[in-house]
Amino acid sequence: MKDRTADILPPEGVPITFLISSGGARFGAQLLDIVITFGGLLALFFALIWVGVFDWSIIATLFLLVIFFIRIPYYIFSELVWNGRTLGKRIVGIRVISGDGGRLTPHQIVARNLMKEVEVFMPLTTLMSGTIEDGWVGLAMFAWVMLVLAVPVFNKRRQRLGDMIAGTLVVDQPRSVLMPDLAVQTRVNETGFILDTAQLEIYGRFELQVLEEILREKPRTAEARSRVAEVARTIRRKIGFDETVANHDDWEFLSDFYRQQRQYLESRQLFGDAREDKFHEKAKAAGAAKPSR
């Protein structure tokens, strides 16, 4: 299990450990996505063949053309909308993240999925179409597919060529919820740090989950206390919290921030405002800027 872990350092400076997804999980997700993209279209074309509307060669060519223009938008659009997840990945429980700890960008998503076409789909589609007359060409394509499929096996981070070019990783998406005890517990030594709505607007659910990992256990060493203090300073600076917080109150500040941030996010969720991370405002603005059709 240890060789599948990857430590990512996001801009906040708080290291996060992800579990690199297994080959079986990635294969299962890919198989589900293929069934989703191919399934309905394949049934339609078999129906056309059955009734004899078109000649088989015409239908085969048309099928390859249509599936190409369905498959690429499906992968790109799904990972853009669901933050690095297609339907298959959502079912299996894995996702794509940026290897540098930043936000997964549209450029990275497009790059990794276009490379998937070059790596696997186009060579396999050409081989299965039966249009290759030169046996050596077919053998070279088959060797290419086998080579690119073997790349993640011998890669420490299980990256395929598209992930290396795009700077992305495929990791497990834990099926966990925020711990209720952190949100409802009452402290004996209540400090009562109060944050306003503008300060709670900044972060999203992802950052809250990262903070939860820190708050699972009180710091017992000087290094752990220093880390808590740095996280508290980073959050105060980010949200514009100007009140003075004593060094021994950093833990209490983070606990208050966690509780109020969680309550705020849950209240926004009731109105359909799902805030995945701190980039939610940019994502919302980008969506609003798209021209309506």
TrEMBL record:
Pfam families: RDD. The keyword Protease does not apply. Residues 24-167 form the RDD domain. InterPro entries: RDD. The chain crosses the membrane at residues 27-51, 58-77, 135-154. Keywords: Membrane, Transmembrane, Transmembrane helix. It comes from the Bacteria. It is a multi-pass membrane protein. It is found in: Membrane. This is RDD family protein. It comes from Albidovulum litorale.
